[in-house]
Amino acid sequence: MNTRVLTRGALATVGVLLILGTCGGAFTAATAWAAAAQEIAATAPPGSKTIWTGVFSDAQALRGEKPYVEKCAYCHRADLSGGEIGRPLKGVPFLIRWEGKLGNLYFKIGNTMPQDKPATLEPGEVTDILGFILKMNGVPSGTAELTPDPSLETIFVTRDAPAP
Which helix (H) or strand (E) segment is 35 a member of? Predict the structure, then answer.
């Protein structure tokens, strides 16, 4: 079981935000937990791969562009900046939202997207779209390709590339 322990700092953040919320502030429990999650800042376990280690190829990202444009861009925009319907899939907001196992993002896309026809993407399309999204976020490509299997649970999304 993958569990995460809240640090004292994260718990303090939750407590302060919840107190502010009960005093008429605009904070909610969801805001408090989101702040705590940022405090925790998901990091890859020692020895694991991150998105910054060349986990997809240029060819995969190129293959993912077409299904992205056809099935995702309406809500998330062609430049991945997000719109009224879809969240941004690019930049710090995206990386913060999806910190953790890349498999979580694969599951979300594969089971709930596109919004008007959920769970209609083929597994290979989902991994190709992931490659395209990562490439658009400035993540370096490599020679490997993402595959729709449990290996996605061993690749971690992190905000920053690891220090050399």
Answer: helix 29-40
Instruction: Find out whether 82 and 133 touch, Cβ atoms under 8 Å.
Output: no
* Residue 161 · residue 54 · CB < 8 Å: no
What's the whole-model pTM score?
0.74
Mark whether 36 and 73 lie in a shared domain. Answer: no
Q: CA neighbours within 13 Å on the CB side: how many for 133?
A: 30
103 occurs within a structural domain:
yes
Domain presence at residue 31: yes
Owning domain of residue 31? 8-40
Tell me which long-range contacts 11-15 makes (C-beta under 8 A, separation of at least 24): 11/36, 13/39
Contact between 49 and 156 under an 8 Å Cβ cutoff? The reply is yes
Distance CA 98, CA 101 (A): 8
Give dist(CA 28, CA 39) in Å, integer: 17
How many whole angstroms separate alpha carbon 39 and alpha carbon 111? 29
Question: Using one digit for the tens of pLDDT, what is the confidence trace for 114-135?
Answer: 999 999 999 999 999 999 999 9
For residues 110 and 13, give the distance between their C-alpha atoms in angstroms, rounded to a whole number. Answer: 33
